[in-house]
């Protein structure tokens, strides 16, 4: 993992800041000691780890995240999980709905319960660290991306006086219904960025029309170039370059493109 000091004064979107958020998402897969050491290298002097266990009606047993506190910035990063572990419950169209934050629509039950299990810890860390009007950021990869998006929505719709300054997700699955997606797009215009790497299979689940994506797509094509949109015709051609019969097979392009390292590598290349 590449370490670099994060610019805690960052506010708007830049590829460099997106790379920093990608590295923060990647860091969520490391052990606590590595997270704490890297936080110090990045200029953050406070760290809290969040870990809860629960038993939803899906093969998901816990939620893990961490929160970094610095002089000018707070980052909460949610850990993801392997795409093969998401297959069954992300593909289940009969999943019961979970009420959306602030009464705005509905979210996938598994995502709703996963965030609920860890939210009190996350919220307490933000309160404890926000002693200098620090900006607040959520990020995550895969399942962690869904939780980061919902954390931003929950903070805004339930406590709008502490609206997150930005939400960056990587390989995020569809998370909510059309109503919450629309409300979120309005509230987080120019503050939400959802990165999708070419044939990454996870953003294609759970199935439409029950679940929808939020907007603000940043698409990485087969050559690693970053785009603000995915044109329909050229996007279909681009995505076809690596397809295999089973996109969730361990060696498939759909899984290879989902790895967090692939997102970090692409954003590093787009720095030039």
UniProtKB/TrEMBL annotation:
User: InterPro entries in the record, alphabetically?
Assistant: AB_hydrolase_fold (IPR029058), Fungal_lipase-type (IPR002921), OBL-like (IPR044819)
Every Fungal lipase-type domain range: 77-208
| Gene Ontology biological process terms, A to Z | lipid metabolic process
User: GO MF annotations for this entry?
Assistant: triacylglycerol lipase activity
Write down the CDD domains for this protein, in alphabetical order: Lipase_3 (cd00519)
Quote the protein name from its UniProt record.
Putative lipase
**Cited Gene3D superfamilies:** alpha/beta hydrolase (3.40.50.1820)
- Species this chain originates from: Streptomyces lydicamycinicus
């Amino acid at each position: 993992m590449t370490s670099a000091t994060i610019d805690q004064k960052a506010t708007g979107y830049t590829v460099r800041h997106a790379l920093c958020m990608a590295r923060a998402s990647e860091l969520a897969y490391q052990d606590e000691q590595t997270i704490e050491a890297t936080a110090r290298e990045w200029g953050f002097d406070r760290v809290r780890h969040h870990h809860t266990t629960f038993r939803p009606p899906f093969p998901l047993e816990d939620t893990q995240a961490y929160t970094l506190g610095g002089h000018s910035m707070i980052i909460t990063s949610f850990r993801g999980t392997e795409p093969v572990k998401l297959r069954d419950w992300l593909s289940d169209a009969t999943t019961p709905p979970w009420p959306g934050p602030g009464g705005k629509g509905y979210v996938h039950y598994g995502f709703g319960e996963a965030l609920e299990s860890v939210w009190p810890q996350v919220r307490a860390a933000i309160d404890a660290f926000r002693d200098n009007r620090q900006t607040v950021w959520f990020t995550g990869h895969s399942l962690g991306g869904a939780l980061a998006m919902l954390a931003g929505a929950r903070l805004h719709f339930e406590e709008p006086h502490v609206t997150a300054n930005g939400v960056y997700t990587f390989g995020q699955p569809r998370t909510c219904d059309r109503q919450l997606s629309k409300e979120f797009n309005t509230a987080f215009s120019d503050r939400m960025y959802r990165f999708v790497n070419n044939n990454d299979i996870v953003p294609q689940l759970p199935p439409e029309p029950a679940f929808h994506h939020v907007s603000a797509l940043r698409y990485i094509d087969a050559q690693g170039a970053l785009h603000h949109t995915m044109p329909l015709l050229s996007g279909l051609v681009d995505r076809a370059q690596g397809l295999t019969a089973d996109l969730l097979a361990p060696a498939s392009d759909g899984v290879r493109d989902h790895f967090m390292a692939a997102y970090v590598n692409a954003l590093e290349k787009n720095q030039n």
